[in-house]
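Worked example

This section walks through a single chain of length 555. The input is the sequence exactly as stored; nothing has been trimmed or padded.
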Amino acid sequence: VDGTTCSILTYLSQIEDFCPPRLKRNHSSHHDCTQAEVRTSLSHLYEVFSNNSGPAIRFIRSRVERMSSWWIQAGLWMRQSSNKTVLTQMRVLHTVTSKSMVERGGPLGELVQWADLSACLTILGHNNIHSVLHETLVKLMYVCCDWSSLIGAAPGRGSCPIQRPLTFDLIYTDYHGLAHLQGAMGLAFQHYQCRFRILDSFGTEPAFNLGSYARSRGFKTLWGSWGLQPLQYLTMFPHTPDNSFLGFVSEETVREELREEELEPDTYKKDRIAVVYGKEEYMWQGKSEYVGVIHEELETHATVYQPAERASSLPSFIRNHGLESESLLLSQLFVGLGFPYEGPAPIEAIALGCVFLQPRFDPPHSSDNNNFYKGKPTTRQISSQNPYAEEFIGKPYVWTVDMTNSTDVREAVKAILNTEPFTPREFTCEGMLERVHGYITHQNFCSKSVPAWPPQRALRIHLGPLGQSCVSVCRRSSLVCEPSFFHHLNSPAAFTSMVQEVNHLFPAYSPWGQHCGLQQEPLLFSCAGSDPSHRRLCPCRAHLPGQVALCPDCL
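Given that input, the structure is written out below as tokens.
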């Protein structure tokens, strides 16, 4: 036995007689250190899709095929760019458990992420396997013992040991898939959980992630309490620095069509049309006056799913196209109704040259006053329908207004003129490839050592005022909070006195008690969280233009 998977399996089957004989099987082939070479074809992914069916996989494949030329161009760019570390080819499992209403138009945000993640990993040279059914997942997970020899015994029972070697280097899943994995893996779940990456649209803050702390401090919810490293959770927008921002890619349909048709710039004119963002009728309730003000200035359209047997409850002046409309292509304004929260559609609209008009929330929406966020593992205060669009893009592409103030809404609509298409770099194929490559290269949650990425030279230390989170403290200086740097602040060198206490706000300084508190539980290092009695010591860093997840020294 030399420490390799192959030698261990051989010993257990041939010497100890603990596992069935490994006849003509090479279960360690994925550990042969093949280099991951950037691909300029998605054929490997199409072969994976051919073995799966169902509306979710059909949606994912359709999106990948529609965007394939952009991914291929991004792969060519990736090949030509310098300073890209060569990685060992990884075997990656995707457990797609989303039950999105594909035929009804939403919610599709999670499937957009699954599609773009699949394409991204394929272009980066890794091998993907998609699993939708729990039964398929169980069969895929382990290779040590021959299942037929167990005579139908469930995983973890019979003569086969529970800690079987895992055949995947990375496992991307969501909260539902995580529960399935725990049931399938038994006691091995804890041993291999460092390989999990959780697609988590709204994020999981550290205070909710550590089960014992969540139960004792009132942060217990139906989600969270898995005890993972907070950076293992992957969000749709960079709203929670404690988690990793995965994102998605915005489809720049108009820009591509203009190139193909070779239109002159002066011929590119937007019609006086507003498209309302809301594909279900319940989202329109109580919004008639708000939409009516917009209709005074612009012809107003919608893409609402309506069964043929049910009469419409939309305002009579709305022109509804159903789910098949492409009215965004020539529309001038994309109108948010306040829900759904933080979806991909506003970014897509801005990329098509629309201006996004959205409601401001006063007071902000949170788990304290909003049923949607109630029970979610976050304390964020949502100031608008899409805070990322408000904070990171802003005017002239994004206008945030008081929906109940007709004058405010009317003036905003009149001020909006034709706007050129705009896409932040982090929502392009190149930006997502760059970001995911950085994560795969540098994020190692199986190691017990202090994170070495981002490099410490990027650290900027800020002591915030009373009652502010590190997210706010860093943002005031046009920086972002970097949770990987908390280790560098959590020492006597940073504070001259300390209190041995577990608190997700530490490291922090309390002027009332005139003491400094250090963090005793690394899983509670958190950019989120604030308290009127604490001044938080915050690890901040700069970021690349349009790429908030990466610092200038991170590539």
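What to look for: Residues 35 and 88 are 4 Å apart (CA to CA).
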